[in-house]
Amino acid sequence: MRVELAHSTIHYREIGEGTPVVWVHGYPLSSRIWDPQIDIPGVRHLLPDLPGFGESPAPGGDLSMDDYADGVIAVLDSAGVRTAVVAGLSMGGYIAFALARKAMERLGGLILVDTRETADTEDGKRARFESIETVRAKGLAPIVDGMLPKLLTAKTMKDHPETTERTRRIMESATPEGVIAALAAMAKRPDSAGLLPTIEVPTLIAVGKEDSLTPPADAERMRAAIPGAELAVIDGAAHLSNFEKADAFNEAVSDFLERRQPTR
Ligand code: MLT
């Protein structure tokens, strides 16, 4: 299925029946990173590819986190879903914060995966713009090679070459325009710390114990700030806790969804 937006088109998949959950992937990935979650029963899975990633064509201009959030809202509208649990992995979490800011009423719950509420530091922003120059000059290969060891644990990379290869292939399906738009949008994103105490829906935070990009300390800080939030620390996982340790992650999500008291 596809939705058309001002500067982009979003392709999404819809699988299963039950509680609507929209799974928003991270950078520089695609909805395929959520494939292990399709096994979670009792869920109507909505799986968008952000503009320029996976099956979605390259965007036609600059994008902000608000634009990505509008894309997710357009997917919900297209699927006829009023409220959904919004699950965001890393950049997907930044998008979930933008969505909560503009349309809290569309949220039936929140699952924040290996993400953080803070904006980029000045050094972080500089690194994003250097990465944009790298993509322009050399294409995606240096980005893919640089990201891979940050996404998975050294143990998984050594013992599970198939997981490593799948992760690499997912990143290689990105377009340079999609990667550049995402890097610029992440550099420009606002701080979401002030939003956290206003989040009024059941929230689960999951983080890989070995995540160095958004470490457990970030997750613990968000847990303390969001009223009633729960935290699942996933052993043996780095930045892709849902993908690297899917069984433990899916158990935490199923348990959360079963106990969630829908507020709307
Ligand atoms: C992601 O996984 O989406 C990125 O690592 C997020 C980031 O670079 O801030």
3D architecture notes:
The protein is an alpha/beta fold and 264 residues long. The chain has ten helices and eight strands. It has helices at residues 65-79, 91-103, 122-138, 141-151, 154-159, 161-172, 176-188, 216-225, 241-244, 246-259, and strands at 2-4, 9-15, 19-24, 43-49, 84-89, 107-113, 203-208, 230-234. Bound molecules: D-malate.
Low-confidence stretches: none
Are any ligands bound, and if so which? D-malate
Strand/helix succession: EEEEHEHEHHHHHEHEHH
Overall mean pLDDT stands at 97
Count of DSSP helices?
A: 10
Query: In one word, what is the shape?
Result: globular
From the N-terminal CA to the C-terminal CA, the straight-line distance is 26 Å
In angstroms, what is the radius of gyration? 17 Å
Number of strands: 8
In terms of structural class, how would the helical and strand content be classed?
Answer: alpha/beta
Strand content: 15-25%
What is the share of helical residues?
40-55%
Q: Which sheet architecture does the biggest sheet show?
A: 8 strands, mixed
Strand order across the largest sheet: 1-2-4-3-5-6-7-8
